[in-house]
Predict the structure.
Amino acid sequence: QEKPSRLSAALFGEDCEISHEQVYELLKYAALGKCHNAAQPSWCHIYHQSHLAGVVVIVLHEMSQLHFYKFYLQFKHLRRVFRHRFTLPPSSANFLANLYGDAANLNPQNTAQDSTSTSSQHAINSSDLQRDPIIQKYGEEKRGLTSYTLTLEELKKNDYPMKGSPGYEGYMYTECDQPRTDSSPLFGLDCEMCLTAKGNEVTRVSLVDAQGRCLLNELVKPESRIVNYRTRFSGITRKILLPVKTKLADIQARLKRMLPHDAVLVGHSLNADLQALQMIHPSVIDTSLLFARNEGRRFKLKFLAKAVLGKEIQCEQKIGHDPTEDARAALELAQFFIEQGPAKVAELNLEMLLTTERLTEISPNKSALQLPQNTVQREQNGPSQLSRSCFLDCLQMTGQKPLLLGRQEPDSSGLCQGNLSSSNKQILQQALKDVPLSTFSIIQFSLDPEHVAPHLLAGICEKVRIKLTDMLTIYAGPFDESFCLKTVKKEFRRCGPIRSLTVVTETYQPYVCIQYEVLEAAQLAVESLNGAKVAGSIIKVQRPVTGTMLDCDVLIKELELDIENEGVIYVAGLKKSLTETDLQEEFSQLKDLQALFLPRDLQSGKHRNCCFLKFLKPESAVDALEVINGWAVTGSRLRSRKALAPGHLWRWIWQMDHSNEKQRRDILSAEKEQQSNFEQELRKKLKKLDQHIRKLYRRLQNNTLCIVLFPGVN
């Protein structure tokens, strides 16, 4: 919600442009709140920040305000649901890097003095122990392994392949149907995947037994064309896979033969491995769920191996993960949990250890033992001021898990979890699963490179400019040969500010061509003066009849329904001598009037002869229209109608009209057929993107702050 003192500017106006820094202020406070000295944004206000369920940022990569208004009718969900809309200035740097900052470093002045510490600093008291999610899920008593295998409900909730479930018809069933006991054998399983034209496909599989012995470590040749080997994570390269003959079916058959009928598979997020293997197994222990955290968040395998087992895995010096090492680590974690019991695991205070690890990464000169006590000392002295650059670090230190999904590689700082996908559909499917588990998510949808070619975008820009110009233009007539041009101009000016007026003499009788400065003025002229008597003649008022204007009536209707125009009306025919104070007094009798905006000429700075009124309730705006238009019967100069153009669009129209003339001529000489085919394809893609956003939006929890960014290409 906007601060009252900034309301008119925020809703209508000349201050509708906000900076990347202001977006950053909003996201930082929404995610962190007062607990980390994150201040309320300077330009708006969030009430009850602690009630926010999460923050979701949807980035439409390389798309801009140009795409939104050229394909306005295709963005049906966006324009009807997202209430606040602002313009961002172009960014010379990488947009996300500019917004979220680089890899984090705490300000030196915020680091507490070193002090002696002991191993007891990680101790967890009894009341905290009872609140630990592991204790709340399993209790304190030791149990056998069957107590930790996933139930049918948990398998379904976490997207495990299940027998008889839709979508898994072609999957191989291991036929391990024998009842499980606490002495059933455990097997660790892990796979490495690459990205193919079909999606995630297995490239390497490892299986270890309960003693940690490797039973299977096999490379697999994917059926589909490989799009991304993901060498950084998988260690797989084209050269490694070139001589491989083993197919997925061969591995499925071998695993089925190797597993006893009462086998329990252990893995970390094992659902992804089984989906890639296209296999169904009824009894699993998932260590990402076993070591429970609040709000569905999960510890990484690398962290658990170090914190619980004291083992370093997935070392940065190695190229790619070792699936045998990962399978063995997951198996040993499950064995530790079963042997020690939930209470002993909870006493490890894994959340504190994770915070310690993050702080160690940020301040490498501090020892791991010193950091927790320093953290406590800082909390006792009051929360530390956080620099902009450590925004995502702070999220992780508070136990929140920033999520990044898109086609781009994960950030080098490792703060965001990346998921490279080959299509927007795959990104959406992953987001529908992962976003509810994260309190801060960045979801990036992209267009194909050919759809953001500069010359094609320039063509779109020119078409938008032409269409806006046509929508601002009306033709009126016919008039008598000796008509008074001054009278005509005076009458049409009552509808709003006129940019230009010319007489059309090519016709049998004279007409006038009028171009207005705001859409509402042109529409008001069409609605109020068509069929009226002006300068002694009954005239017809219409817009230009061109191909781009065939859907003008539909567009006008949809602009009226735009959620940003809800409760906003346009009033024209004002005396230019009136000030904003004068107008507030004149309209003071209107019920629920919330704000008034008096536009200025962007060049001269002078007031226009029109204004916009914002009402608290839409029905109050309708009542105000009746009142103001009723005044016209008694001789008032005022005319009014529903608003059509939000403030940032009004400003943008002016900027579009002042674009470079030479550039326009160059663009118009481009191949029209290529442009038409390109636009038709792009229209379909953007409509599909809008549907993706709608699906994701509907899956969000109540009280989620959702922001959609069109960062543009420059």
